[in-house]
Amino acid sequence: MKNNSKPLTIALPKGRxxxxxVSHLAQRGMDISFGSRKLSTVDSTGRLEVYKVKNHDxxxxxxxxxxxxxxxxxxxxxxxxxxxTRVLTLPFGGTRLCVAAPxxxxxxxxxxxxVRVATSYVRMTRDWFHRxxxxxxxxxxxxxxxxAPVLKLAPYIVDLVETGNTLAAxxxxxxxxxxxIKVRLIANSAYFKLHYREIGELADIMMREKS
Length: 211
Ligand code: PRP
Prior knowledge:
Layout: E1 8-13, H1 16-26, E2 40-42, E3 48-53, H2 58-63, E4 69-73, H3 74-80, E5 85-89, E6 95-102, E7 115-119, H4 122-131, E8 136-140, H5 147-150, E9 156-161, H6 165-169, E10 172-181, E11 183-187, H7 189-194, H8 196-207
Parallel strand pairs: 1-3, 1-4, 7-8, 7-9
Antiparallel strand pairs: 2-3, 4-11, 5-11, 6-9, 6-10
The chain binds 1-O-pyrophosphono-5-O-phosphono-alpha-D-ribofuranose (PRP).
1-O-pyrophosphono-5-O-phosphono-alpha-D-ribofuranose binds at residues 143-144, 146, 159-166.
């Protein structure tokens, strides 16, 4: 059914989550198709105006209210340091944030000197070690973090683990399971108050069984 009110604005992350989000919405009657190289579109029901943005930029768009809504992992939201209204948790894309190291390395929780950790998740890593009073030296990397212990940049890494295949392929194992990472529908808090009813309807559709 075509929606007659103004569409809600929503940012979706480019990359591996996008296909899951698009298929989740399509299974509930909202088809999203971006023309070649186009970065914005309106879904087939007219309910959503969709912006395709870089994962790490998504919190910025929602924080500024450019997109009232966004779909994002807890990792990206936490690393942004910004706060949002959490509307709902989606049933896909969940991962774990873990401390890993070459097989046989002692846990970083065993008292010793400063723990050297390579990661893309600097804020979450810092918070986790600080909360436990463990001195930590964090080396920020943009990706392929599993290489760091192999090349002796740092003995420990903090990274997302889904299947564990990347760790295993690089001779690493999980030492600490730090946090469950979920994918959420988030909202700019002011936007949420203004569009409470429409966002509620969208959330109901997104939580439905697929049709
Ligand atoms: C993510 C994550 C791990 C890998 C985990 O990386 O950072 O490297 O996936 O998945 P697995 O447990 O199923 O092997 P991504 O592919 O997003 O690229 P990146 O290394 O550039 O972060």
